[in-house]
Design a protein that fits this description.
2 domains, 4-stranded antiparallel β-sheet, Lipocalin, elongated, 2 helices, single chain, about 280 residues, Immunoglobulin-like
Length: about 280
């Protein structure tokens, strides 16, 4: 009898496990910003609207659907001042799985010591952004407000595993039929790391500010304009070609501009000649 009970329990557990699909911790998810944000009007704590760009499948089952809701929060919002630019940053907090539950996320696939806090913003945490000539990004200009444009795509990763009932597959299919989401074709991005001597220099890619050295990001294939600048040093400029399957590591040595040559001394102005005393004969009486 006891053996029968044990076997029954074992079969029940196996059946339960078979009826569930697990989304592993560290699963990659692409999310897209669905609204424009600017440091001129954003407020700290404000909710940010995002959505999932591409479906995530486990064993042929869609576990995170394209168009699924993702949530974020503005963590830094300071408008521009007279002589300083604005500041803006937001976090990506979670993505919605096919069963409607929210899965918390992080910015790195592998959890490592010293990893940024989960509530850190995408800029301060160095989240991977999809950059490219046709990709909206963020405009960060000196002494002006920062604008993060709708359409920015970020790569994030699930911060915990999530058990999804297999029955949710039917719900996903039904949702896709009623509201099909536009899915961008997959693009093989190129890993780029940038270091500079000295570090702490601003990196500008295709006119867009992407952070300070040292840092890494991913670019769409093709040619890109790269500029690295730091106060007191000459700007370092280069064109780079991002090739799929070929990571790039860039080392930029910044140089201080040559000191200006002192102006040649001007010749002293000639003094006006002193008129000679008048001379003439003196009549003698």
């Amino acid at each position: 009898m006891r053996s029968f009970i044990r076997i029954s329990i074992w079969f029940c557990l196996c059946g339960l496990a078979a009826a569930q699909i697990e989304i592993p911790e560290g699963t990659r998810v692409k999310v897209r910003l669905e609204e424009d944000l600017t440091s001129a009007t954003a407020e700290k704590g404000q909710s940010v609207r995002l959505s999932v760009v591409e479906e995530v499948k486990i064993g042929g089952t869609v576990v995170i659907a394209p168009g699924a809701k993702a949530t974020g929060t503005v963590v830094v919002a300071t408008p521009k001042r007279l002589m300083t630019g604005g500041k803006l940053d937001f976090s990506v907090d979670g993505v919605t799985a096919a069963d409607g539950e929210t899965i918390p996320i992080r910015y790195r696939q592998e959890e490592v010591p010293g990893m940024p806090d989960l509530k850190a913003g995408i800029i301060s945490a160095g989240a991977t952004m999809v950059l490219g000539p046709a990709a909206p990004l963020l405009r960060m200009m000196r002494a002006k407000d920062i604008t993060m444009e709708k359409g920015i795509v970020l790569e994030v990763f699930t911060n915990q595993s999530h058990a999804l009932p297999a029955a949710a597959k039917a719900e996903v299919a039904k949702a896709e039929e009623s509201s099909p989401a536009a899915v961008e074709p997959p693009v093989e991005l190129v890993d780029v790391s940038v270091n500079s001597t000295p570090d702490g220099a601003r990196i500008v890619v295709d006119g867009m500010d992407v952070g300070d050295t040292p840092t890494s990001f991913r670019l769409k294939p093709g040619e890109h304009e790269l500029q690295i600048e730091k106060e007191g040093f000459a700007a370092w400029k280069s064109k780079i070609t991002a090739t799929p399957g070929t990571p790039q590591s860039i080392e930029a040595k910044l140089e201080q501009p040559a000191p200006a040559k002192p102006a040649a001394p001007q010749p002293a102005a000639a003094k006006p000649a002193t008129p000679a005393p008048k001379t003439g004969a003196t009549r003698v009486r």
